[in-house]
Write the structure tokens for this entry.
Amino acid sequence: MVFSILGIAAISSVLAIISNNSIDRIPRNQSIIKPEPYCRSCATAFTWKDQIPILSYLMHKGKCPYCGAKIPTRNFFIEIGEFAWVSIFVLKFGWSYEAIIVLLFGISLIAIIAIEYENRVMSDLILLIMLMLSVIFLLAYRQSEFPNALLGMVIGAGVMAVYNFMKIAGKTVVRFDYSEIKLGAVLGLFFGGFGIILCIFLAWFIGAILGSVKIKFFKKDHRDAIPEFPTILAIAGIITVLFNTELTQFYIALMR
């Protein structure tokens, strides 16, 4: 038990540092490896003591220890979120090479959500990482499900293509966003045909709830109330990663 707690703390800490670094730099087309993390206000490199997830943020009250500039609150929430994600995932699935691939896929979705929320862009680099994880997952552990994975890829890409057609028809955009189609394809490849359908329906359900709350309590216009669908789809993807089996069983029970 002690080793599991230490393992969760170590892995979530490393992943949180990498994720925050990636979220900061990928939209700016900067390397996520070099230079080491630094303050964007005074350019001072952070030491290891300044990068302890959650603790460093609280100790320095969300400010740079060298110049006092505010550190994005998102860093703190990413650190909490990834610690929670790793903890829940390990408790549910345990430690294995297969589980680690799925764990990293979920971490990639968290980064997709943060980048999309902050910058309204989809990271092709993270999508490529997710594609590689999906292919490794299939070749190593799901070879018999290859046709189903291809079907899921077609369904996911098709849904996002239709979503883009609807945006163009509604004159909210003037051109296709192929990154969104790539996200649907990668999720479909990972989840398979039935899994991506569950993920899409879950995304629509979450989007409907969030939109209704915004309209009811925040007096938003109908056009502004519905969140960006790629973000909601990524959130649904995280839920599907954790509860794919339970969601499938629930759906089958409803159909009986």
About this structure: Residues 138-256 form one domain. The mean pLDDT is 83.
